[in-house]
Amino acid sequence: MTAILQFFTNYEILIFLVLAVGLMFAMRALIRARHEMSESVFGLERELAHRHINEAVTALILVVLLAMAELELTVFLSPNLPASSVLVTQTMNPLTTQTGTIPPELLQTIGAFTPQPTLTAQTTGCVPGQIMITFPKPGDIIKGSIELAGTANIPNFGFYKYEFAPLGSDTWETIQAGDQVKQDGDLGNWNTSEITPGYYNLRLVVTDNAARVLPACIVPVQIAAP
How far apart are CA 41 and CA 197, in angstroms? Predict the structure, then answer.
């Protein structure tokens, strides 16, 4: 017991840093889950978002409980140990550890060779006959209002939605959704008039009636000024 208390006392700062990181991840997951809930359209989608919220809250509570336990051990129990049982151990404070720095000249050289996002004329994650975007084609230049075409037809179909995001970004914005099976048909309208011209990814997400989200079909396109 004494050895355990000594461990948690010696590495108190490091443990609290790890818990702080866990708290940030839990808070971020909760915020993203609430955002997902606000954008949910159908019941299955809202059920999945609600599940994500519960998981994030559980993780948040767990981190708080661990922090309280660490505080209890280091503040209340450790000072009451006999003096002979407490060994003074030099520990590293990660907040004061010096790290090497990269010269500005080297940073500029590295930045010059950093690859920039490019538009590749190919799809990813698409399944012919089940999850497909047939228009627009990969690499198409589009503008104004267009009608999307494709297939959303999987076993135990639930619903589909299509979204877009700037090339290289993971922040997706929902355009529209539907709860009817589509086979080489009209998926819906996309008005690009108010979107900043540039390179984007368009994706079709299909969910079955058990709230299981299948891999998305992603098509790269270029939006031109209207």
Answer: 27
Q: Pick from 201, 199, 195: which is nearest to 225 by CA?
A: 195
Q: Does 135 share its domain with 219? A: yes
Closest of 161, 149, 182, 164 to residue 41, by C-alpha: 161
Q: Is the per-residue pLDDT at 160 higher than 50?
A: yes
Pairing of the two strands 217-223 and 141-142: parallel
Look at residues 58, 89, 120 and tell me which one is the last residue of a structural domain: 89
Q: Write the pLDDT tens digit of every residue in 14-50.
A: 888 888 888 888 888 889 888 888 887 777 888 888 8
Q: Catalogue the E-assigned strands of the chain.
A: 131-135, 141-142, 145-152, 157-166, 173-178, 182-191, 198-208, 217-223
Q: What residue has token string 């529209």?
A: 176
Domain count, the chain: 2
Domain that holds residue 65: 2-89
- Residue 131: count other Cβ atoms within 10 Å of its Cβ: 22
Answer for the pair 176, 145: CB distance below 8 angstroms, yes or no. no
Q: Cα 177 from chain centroid?
A: 21
